[in-house]
Amino acid sequence: MTPFELAEPRTLREAVALLAAGDAPVRAIAGGTALMLMMKAGVFQPARLVSLRRVEAQHAQIAAMPDGGLRIGAMATLSSLVKSLAVKHAAPVITQTLKTLSNVRVRNVATLGGHLAHGDPHMDLPPVLTALGAQVRTLSPTGERKLAVGELYTGYYETVLADNELITEIMVPPQTGWRAAYMKITTRAADDWPTLGVAVSLRMASNTVMDARIVVSAATNTPVRLTTAEDTLRGASLDATVLARCGDAAVSGVELAGDAHGSSAYKCELLRVYAQRALRQAMG
Ligand SMILES: Cc1cc2nc3c(=O)[nH]c(=O)nc-3n(C[C@H](O)[C@H](O)[C@H](O)COP(=O)(O)OP(=O)(O)OC[C@H]3O[C@@H](n4cnc5c(N)ncnc54)[C@H](O)[C@@H]3O)c2cc1C
User: Does an H or E element contain 171, and which?
Assistant: First the structure.
């Protein structure tokens, strides 16, 4: 590894000021679980790393909102999310997803901000948070902005974040009336990287689907909303015919890439089956 400067600012504002616009070899480092792998592989050689570990403690807090939503500081570790009763109560799908996300050593240091900013399409939480309608708040020298998690990603490891822009907070809206599920399909261990991820969220009135969000990940460059499949559900009751129609529409609405975990055709079949299973699981 080549030598680099390590800056340890005490506030997020100072951290932003230490980052550089443009394509300079300067990056924020939070848990370091993703960035260090890139540095060890020689894919990224920093001139300066800006550590977020010493910024204000409030940026690691998880708060339940009076309306039933959640506000999660970007520096909250994935372990703190797994243990949080507020998260389990407001959005149990997040707690369930985290249990098979990597291992406890990674979760103890990895942060939600780093997880979302990295842009790796195999990550488990971007599709889940997209299905839940979550938003992120960011800070850069030009000010703050809010955007949907689903708008963060533009391509393989690419996001809309500027080089000197940090995620500061994640907001999960109240899930009253919604039911969600995430299916992580792995071809090796259960806590391996997903071969395919399918997140669903349904708003029901009695047995009728009023609204639906279905998001596929891991075999696509970014998490993708399957809007055609969602349309098959609105106004319908989830019987076997509707579920099968939705599974077919899911496959026709997206191109899935094959890799070492399976061919494109195999992943299409996984999507057809697991979209239906995720919907059944969401229905409880
Ligand atoms: C062995 C192993 C197994 C794994 N398995 C899985 C898995 O099964 N499922 C899964 O989803 N993930 C998995 N991961 C990935 C893991 O979830 C990520 O490495 C982790 O979430 C990244 O968070 P971090 O805080 O360590 O980010 P860092 O490594 O510190 O940073 C990652 C990137 O985000 C940027 N960044 C950090 N914080 C911010 C911020 N607040 N605002 C803007 N940019 C920021 C950094 O500059 C860097 O570019 C695995 C990782 C490892 C090492």
Answer: strand 166-172
